[in-house]
Design goal:
Layout lengths: L8 E9 L3 H17 L4 E7 L3 H7 L5 H7 L4 E6 L9 H13 L4 E7 L16 E7 L3 E10 L6 E10 L2 E10 L6 E7 L2 H18 L6 E6 L5 H18 L4 E6 H10 L6 E4 L1 H15 L6 E5 L5 E4 L16 H13 L3 H17 L15 H9 L3
Parallel strand pairs: 1-2, 1-3, 3-14, 5-12, 10-11, 10-12
Antiparallel strand pairs: 4-5, 4-13, 6-9, 7-8, 13-14
Length: about 375
C-alpha cells in the first residue's frame, strides 16, 4: 500500500488535537522533517485546529471544506482526540471515525514491537516481540448503525440505515419491538465480502513480506462460535482468499478470548493478526501493553487515498502540559508515514534513532513513562540528534 517516492516535496496535513497531542506531534514533526531531508525531500505542513477547543468555541467539529482540502494532502498526521470537557464519542466519531470513513481508510495497522530498555510486563527471555495487528477499519460494530429506545412509543423502535462506504452504499430500515415494553439499545454490525477480502489481501501481503520472521503465517482473530453469522462470515471469507490467492501461507483461526489468554502467557506466539474492527481495536491495545506500553505504540489508517498516521495512546489530559508525555509513539507514527510515502531510508533512520536513544541513554535520560526524568521535548531532542 506504500506510495512510491516521485517528488522532492510532500504536503502533510496535521491535526495536533487535544491533551498531549500538540506536545508529541511537535517532536514527530521535527523527526519527520529531519529524516525526509536525508533523501532530499522537504515537508510542507498543513495545520488544522480541530479538536475539543475548536468544538467548544465554534460549535463545529470538522467542516466539509476542511475535508476537501485535506484530501489534496499526501498524508495526515493526527495527535490525539478527546477531552473531559466534551462528552465521549462526539469528537471521536466526528473527527477520527469520520476521517477513516470519508477517506475509506480500510486498513488499521498497529505494529507491536518491544524496544531496547523498555520494560515489558511479561518477560521475553531476551527475545524481541515483533507482531502486527491488521484490523479492518470501516465495518463491524463501528458503522454507527443503531440507536436507543426509551420506551413508551407504541412499543417499537425504528431507525434508518443510510451510509456510504468505499465500494458500496447501504440503505434500509431497522425495526424492532419488545414485550413487555422497556427501554433497550441496539447496535448493528456488518461485514461485507468486499470489506473482508481487501483487508485479507493486505494482511497476506504483509505476512509474505515478513518472511521467515513468521514462517509466512497469518492468524484470523474470530468469535465464530458465538456469532457465526457475523464472524463466521469474516473467517470463511478470509480463508477463501488465503486458500485461493495465497496458498503458500499457513492460516489458522483463533477465538479472540483464547487469543488474549495465549498472548499474555506468550507474547511471542503470534505474528500477523488479521482482525475484524472491534477485536482489532481491543487486541492491538493488549499487544501495545505487552510490547512495553502505549508510549511506543504507533498506528496507521491506510486507504487508497489519503492515509492517516497517529499514536495509539490518546489525549491523556491528566499529564498534558506537564512535560511527562512520551513522544516515541508519535515519532514512530511519523516513521510509518514516511514508509507509506516510499521514503524507506528516512523511515529506517527514525526507527534506528529511537533504538539508539533507548539503548545508549542512562535511565535518568529516558521518558518519565520508563522511570526516567526527560521531558517530552528532551526525549525528542535526544532522538533527533541520532538521525
Amino acid at each position: 500500500m506504500s506510495a512510491q517516492q516521485e517528488k522532492d516535496k510532500y504536503r502533510i496535513a496535521v491535526i495536533a488535537g487535544d491533551g498531549i497531542g500538540p506536545e508529541v506531534i511537535e517532536e514527530a514533526r521535527h523527526m519527520t522533517e529531519a529524516a525526509a531531508s536525508l533523501e532530499g525531500v522537504s515537508i510542507e505542513w498543513m495545520d488544522y485546529p480541530f479538536g475539543a477547543a475548536y468544538y467548544l468555541e465554534k460549535n463545529e467539529i470538522l467542516p466539509e471544506s476542511a475535508l476537501a482540502e485535506m484530501g489534496k494532502a499526501d498524508a495526515l498526521l493526527l495527535g490525539a482526540i478527546g477531552s473531559p470537557q466534551v462528552k465521549p464519542g462526539i469528537l471521536e466519531r466526528g473527527i477520527l471515525l469520520k476521517l477513516r470513513f470519508v477517506f475509506d481508510q480500510y486498513i488499521n495497522l498497529r505494529p507491536a514491537k518491544s524496544l531496547p530498555n523498555v520494560p515489558t510486563p511479561v518477560p521475553l527471555g531476551g527475545k524481541t516481540m515483533d507482531s502486527v495487528v491488521i484490523r479492518e477499519n470501516t465495518e463491524d460494530l463501528y458503522m454507527g448503525l443503531g440507536g436507543i429506545y426509551g420506551g413508551g412509543c407504541e412499543n417499537s423502535f425504528e431507525t434508518s440505515l443510510d451510509l456510504e462506504r468505499g465500494g458500496y452504499s447501504l440503505r434500509g430500515k431497522l425495526s424492532l419491538s419488545v414485550s413487555p415494553d422497556m427501554p433497550f439499545a441496539v447496535q448493528a454490525a456488518l461485514n461485507t465480502r468486499h470489506g473482508v477480502e481487501r483487508i485479507t489481501r493486505y494482511a497476506c501481503r504483509t505476512a509474505i513480506g515478513r518472511g521467515e520472521r513468521d514462517k509466512e503465517r497469518i492468524t484470523i482473530v474470530t468469535k465464530s462460535n458465538a456469532a457465526p453469522a457475523l464472524y463466521g462470515f469474516f473467517e470463511d471469507t478470509a480463508r477463501s482468499v488465503i486458500e485461493e490467492k495465497y496458498p503458500s501461507l499457513k492460516c489458522e483461526a483463533v477465538n479472540v478470548d483464547a487469543l488474549c489468554y495465549h498472548l499474555v502467557r506468550d507474547p511471542l506466539a503470534y505474528g500477523v493478526l488479521l482482525c475484524p474492527n472491534l477485536f482489532g481495536d481491543i487486541v492491538s491495545d493488549l499487544q501495545a501493553g505487552l510490547a512495553g506500553g502505549m508510549g511506543t505504540a504507533a498506528g496507521a489508517n491506510i486507504g487508497d487515498g489519503l492515509s492517516m498516521f497517529e499514536p495509539v495512546h490518546g489525549s491523556a489530559p491528566d499529564i498534558a502540559g506537564t512535560g511527562h508525555a512520551n513522544p516515541i509513539a508519535a515519532i514512530l507514527s511519523g516513521a510509518l508515514l514516511l514508509r507509506h510515502l516510499g521514503l524507506k531510508k528516512s523511515a529506517d533512520a527514525v526507527e534506528k534513532a529511537v533504538n539508539k536513544y533507548l539503548e545508549s541513554s542512562p535511565k535518568n535520560e529516558l521518558p518519565f513513562e520508563f522511570g526516567g526524568g526527560f521531558s517530552c521535548r528532551e526525549v525528542g531532542g535526544a532522538i533527533l540528534k541520532r538521525i
